Amino acid sequence: MSTHKIFAPGGANDSQQYTKGSLDESQLDPNPFTQFDIWFKHANEEKVHQPETVTLSTVELPSGRVSARMVYLKEMDERGFVIYSNWGTSRKASDISSTPQPYAALTFWWHELERQVRVEGPCERLSREESQVYFDTRIRGSRIGAWASQQSQVLRDRAELEQRVKDIEERFGGEGEGRIPVPEFWGGLRVKPEMVEFWQGRPSRLHDRFRYTRTQGEGGEWKIERLSP
């Protein structure tokens, strides 16, 4: 008798088929940033649920242990893809600080369109001044929370966290709307892609996949190749 807790969810005969689209190189912009912008706008137009949601994957050296978590994309331009987080105590912070040249991977999954985008490349911290610009757009509670949370560290109980929030509120003027500086340990991380893959689901798992790679390092031209599914 099988000991599997879960085996082939949905059953072999009920496997979902991806039928909502196809992708050909003729449909792709030569620049992956432009292509991502086209797909992202389409995702918003088609009411994809929070298309900015993305999996950020990092690795710890020398162990090689990989960790991943869901975050939000907040910025994208020709320099790369930017997310924001705690860089003092979080697991992602320790992963990135463990390697002389930190790398990261991003994975977007847009179920409603049966599309996936993968991004891989080196990453860099944004300056405090750059991070302050985004920090000022956050609601006050999120700004207070960034100061109060020692992300990923062990808490005795919820009361300990709530006391930290109270202390930070008092530090920055209670319920007032005064400007709150971005913490030194908090800010943006930019993933500068060396590879971007656009994936369109197709029937029988014979998906359309196209990979952009730099031909001459940062600032070079992009090469587009179709990949086997």
From TrEMBL:
Ranges of Polar residues composition bias in the record: 13-28
Ranges for region Disordered: 1-28
Keyword Nucleotidyltransferase: no
Domain Pyridoxine 5'-phosphate oxidase dimerisation C-terminal positions: 186-229
Gene3D superfamilies membership: Electron Transport, Fmn-binding Protein, Chain A
The Pyridoxamine 5'-phosphate oxidase N-terminal domain, residue ranges: 41-170
The protein, known as: pyridoxal 5'-phosphate synthase
Organism, as annotated: Zasmidium cellare ATCC 36951
